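Same chain as my last thread, 257 residues:
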Amino acid sequence: ERLIDEAIGYALAGNDFDFAASLMEALSREYVVEIWGNHAIKRGDEIPDAVLSRYPHLALQIGMYHAELGHAERAQKYRLLVRTSPNVTENTELIGRLYTLEALIANRMNDLEQAYEAADKALQHLHDDQTALRITTHIVLGLTYDRHHLFEKVREASAKALKIAIDTNDITMILIARGQIIQSWLIEGHLYQAEAESLAVIELSKAENREYVPTVGIVFALLAIVQFEMNQLDDAFHSAQRCIEICDPVMPDGICV
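reply #2:
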């Protein structure tokens, strides 16, 4: 992964933006979500819009990352880059992905009805083999139910995402779906369920060599809150420290504070 990042860095330094964008798009999920996070987003920001518009899947991945962090206005830029691209509506794979981004942006802007509508359209357009995107759309639905405090529906949407992830052995998405379930347990005050699921996810991440995926850092943050509420202060401090160690190198400053 580091060699790929170096190649992208050299391409950007030499103004070979097409080569940099092509490398980033080829590995967009792994590069942006699983490995480099905020660093990858900064790389993407160096690519001129005129070039990035030719790499719509990369633009949507960057937009999703911004939206996931709550930066709806930044995400809109990438949504519009793709939405205004020629022939976008003729590409069912691309339009399904675009609807997924639009659902998440609407969620972040508290336009929940639009979020539900866009997520439904995404699931209609996405192919069955676009499993990662179908999982993501169910996750977005879960986030929207969360805004309405419909926590059973959060877990139902997360369970649908989790089933697809398990069927396809998509470990990263398994961690994300289970993280959403943990958060719902925590918000409802079901501390023992949240604690048990957090510890199980952390063990899974170790077994699958995914200990430094940002989602695992967020799970440590949720576990820290659980442990604090249970007066396990030393454990809470340790979990918070692990969140910072995992997330700070790849996510915006202070995300775990």
